[in-house]
Specification:
Four Helix Bundle (Hemerythrin (Met), subunit A), 8 helices, five-stranded mixed β-sheet, Maleyloyr_isom, MDMPI_metal-binding, 13% strand, Maleylpyruvate isomerase family mycothiol-dependent enzyme, 2 domains, two-stranded antiparallel ribbon, MDMPI_C-term_domain, alpha+beta, globular
């Protein structure tokens, strides 16, 4: 596992939200999000801001179980007709979450849906939740998505950890299918040294590590674009990336490596 450090994650929650706000402030909030077709940009903004407030309530109350959303003040946010209010709501939610996480420290015991029941889980999770949805917003607005290499690499790491954990629980039927010995998937960022991942399928599941090795299929391209493909925010046949080898294996992974 990579670790940017608790302080960095807290800072990134605010920074990534500021970058998201910059995309949204002059955008059409009614525009459909291609990578989340059931959402508009307004829905996306309220999803991110609501997630921030929900996580903040969990950490602030040191909850031992999930906090019902109807018990989280202000979780719904302003509507599309109030873009300035929505912008302020996003900023306030990110700031409150970051401040609460800083005060709690990474080791504070709190509920989470994962095996990691610490405040540090929420600092990392909300960082990358915001990064990925910022990619959605950039795609919708037709602007370039950029992210610092160390943040992007950790976003990929975290996603692999989540999918591996979902497989290990046995409750995710799609993740359970990510097996089959003798097949490998290589992610290779062409613009960041050592930003490479090797996913190895086995009879009982998959494992992954940072490595440069020949694989059944390789996904190559700039790290931000590899991240977007891996999170299903950019098609694998995009001209921004290159797929070498068995493209069906990459499709097999992308269809099953889901959040639920």
């Amino acid at each position: 596992m990579t670790d940017l450090g608790h302080a960095r994650y807290c800072d990134e929650i605010e920074r990534q939200t500021d970058l998201l706000r910059a995309v949204l402030i002059d955008a059409d909030l009614g525009a459909k999000v291609p990578s989340c077709p059931e959402w508009t940009l307004g829905h996306l903004a309220r999803h991110v801001g609501g997630a921030h407030r929900w996580a903040e309530a969990i950490v602030r109350t040191k909850a031992s179980e999930a906090v019902p959303e109807d018990q989280v003040p202000g979780i719904t946010g302003p509507g599309d007709a109030e873009p300035a209010a929505l912008d302020t709501w996003l900023e306030e939610g990110a700031r409150k979450l970051a401040d609460t996480l800083r005060a709690a420290g990474p080791q504070a015991k709190v509920w989470s849906w994962s095996a990691d029941r610490r405040a540090g889980f929420w600092a990392r999770r909300m960082t990358h939740e915001t990064v990925v949805h910022r990619a959605d917003a950039a795609l919708t607005a037709g602007i370039v998505f950029e992210v610092e290499p160390e943040v992007a690499a950790d976003t990929v790491d975290e996603w692999l950890e989540i999918v591996a954990w979902r497989q290990s629980t046995g409750a995710d039927e799609q993740a359970k299918e990510l097996r089959g010995a003798g097949r490998t998937l290589h992610l290779h960022a062409t613009d960041v040294p050592d930003a490479e991942w090797l996913i190895e399928f086995g009879e009982d599941g998959f494992t992954w590590r940072h490595a440069h090795e020949r694989a059944t299929v390789a996904l190559r391209g700039p790290l931000a674009d590899v991240l977007r493909v891996f999170h299903r925010r950019l098609p694998a046949d995009s001209d921004r990336v290159e797929v070498l080898g068995d493209a069906q294996l990459l499709d097999f992974w992308l269809e099953r490596a889901t959040f639920g």
